[in-house]
Design brief:
Helices cover 54% and strands 14% of the residues. It is an alpha/beta fold. A hairpin with a 4-residue loop joins strand 1 and strand 2.
Length: 397
Amino acid sequence: MKIESPLRNLFYCFLTLFLVLLTCAHAQYNIGSYMGLQSDILGEQRVLVVGLPEGYDQTTERYPVMYLLDGDFHFHHVTGLIDFLADLDLIPRIIVVGLQNTDRDRDFTPTAIAERPTSGGADNFLTFLEDELFPAIDGQFRTVPHRILVGHSLGGLFSIHAMLIKPELFNAHIIISPHVIYDDDFILLQAGRLMETIGYSPKALYMAIGEEEREILNPSKRMNRIIKNNKYKDFRLKFEVLDNTDHGSVVHKAVYNGLEFIYSDWKFPLTGIQDGLQAIKFHYSNLSKRLGYTVIPQEVDLNEIGYALLNVKYNEKTLAIFQNKSKALAVFQYNMSLYPNSPNVYDSLGDAYVALGQDGLALENFQIAVQKGEELSDLRLPIFREHLNNQLAKMGK
């Protein structure tokens, strides 16, 4: 139907409005949900934007939490980075809590100075985090006791202050272009003394500054030296000057590098698969100790390891090949013990039993995979049925 002006113009106005609303609704669904929190400590309503990991509503899994300062500026690109790295299994999936600002000078600065009339409220803001924000997030969402604080510029200054005053609150910090020259280098003068007196440390600290940030380049290097000379135990530190970045552009690259550093040992190295299940359990035990919570291997990761073992080829004795297949079976069985409701783990077990020549057990597990796949309307159900039918044909049934 042809629409004539002025009705045509009116039609396009409504169409444009509809598309904008549709786009906004889609974006809001993907980039987080707004949440209000009334703070008695700060005497105001704070607005948060919370990003939940993909599949959060379909599991009972618990997640680390990133507290992102200046969330109104950085939430979108940081959650994109997290999704990207988590999809590659380089980091865990993470709940992101972006804090929108009301008064950065007040909340992020540890001392009051005349040129910033509202400054000096960092300790109060830290109390808000500990006594109000953390309980609210832990009470409403499935979290593990592993927190990351990300701060940029004045937020970076606050992050250093938080690490020095309350080091037990965060397991890791990503500190970007910290404004360490604030109040005549106050934080630099305090850092060495404070680090001598506290007995607890965060587990990891990544700090970065842009190559083009001349004013704070040397003071930031000085802060790095102070932190590096600490007496903390089991403390990991990395400092970088990032090429071709300035005070604004440094943030994205720094968050990426910081997450890779914090979780540098997250993924089980396939170079260690020859030691089988024992090596896997050892890896995740050490990872759990370092991160401060029990890390459960992901189903897809164990599947990848199992199939890697299943397909190892040697020019040695048949026994060596058989032993690797047995190790693969042990990995698949462990996966089944962790994820007993997943049809895919039974399908993989069936493949392992086929490789070992145990047709009866292979058939049994293919049948379970199909049954559970039907119950869950699993999209992989046609593959499970194909594997079952192939095994039935092989056994002449």
